[in-house]
Amino acid sequence: MLLALPVAVLMARGVSTRAWEGLPNSSTILSATLLSFASTFAVVCLAAVLGTPLAYALSRYKFRGKRFVSLFIELPIVMPPAVAGLALLLTFGRTGVVGSLLADSGLIIPFSILAVIIAQFFISAPFYIRSAQVGFSSIANEIEDAARVDGAHGWLMFWYITLPIAWRALISGMILSWARALGEFGATILFAGNLQGKTQTMPLLVYSIFERDIDAAIWTGLVLIALAMIALFLSQSFARAQDRLT
């Protein structure tokens, strides 16, 4: 009841008060929606490109310091978002360790759409990496050994043997990563700000609307909840399909 009741009350309140009538002007919603979908799409692509080989290495190879690598990869999952935003600001800010070097070349990251993508990636990429790692680990070594006997090796085996078996786990991780990036708030507002039409994503829009009209905030929040529920349902479906396959 503690987990389900708040969501049910939010939904009931949104319908009973016709909260959709208090939505802000369409241009504000459109800009926040487009930014959220564009940035989260970029995040998922980055997670797939950078996270897939990392997850495969963690699932297949043993090396010194592997436990610490896994620890730092998964740390953003439990790290307070505000602390994550502060860490990103100290790293990529104008006077940060990396940001100062980029600023000298004219690239200012904080309070830009690039900052939104970095904040979302930092928080959400571990969800994809964990799911991909589980998917690769679930593949029996005998299958890959048999493929090696038949002449498959390296990229050829990964593309034609490993990926076709583990793709459901990868898709599940992508969906979870996308949903987490879509709902990211704390690190984004601290690192990218809440600039309407520039860095204001849908969660930040809810925060801005709440200060003026709680009914509009309720309805916008319900849109995010609906998207999250759909993403969770799809992710669970792919995960169950992967379990049945293995």
Explain the layout of strands and helices.
Layout: H1 5-16, H2 26-60, H3 66-78, H4 81-92, H5 99-104, H6 113-137, H7 141-149, H8 154-182, H9 186-191, H10 202-210, H11 214-245
Helix pairs in contact: 1-11, 2-6, 2-8, 3-6, 4-6, 6-8, 8-11, 10-11
Keyword list:
246 residues; mainly alpha; MetI-like fold; 11 helices; globular
Count of helical regions: 11
So, the CATH homologous superfamily? MetI-like
CATH topology (fold) name: MetI-like fold
- Report strand %: under 5%
Give a brief rundown of this model.
With 246 residues, the protein is mainly alpha-helical.
Explain what the structure shows:
- This protein is an all-alpha fold.
- It has a single domain, classed as MetI-like fold (Orthogonal Bundle), CATH 1.10.3720.
- The chain has helices at residues 5-16, 26-60, 66-78, 81-92, 99-104, 113-137, 141-149, 154-182, 186-191, 202-210, 214-245.
- Helix 2 packs parallel to helix 6 (113-137), helix 4 crosses helix 6 (113-137) and helix 6 packs across helix 8 (154-182).
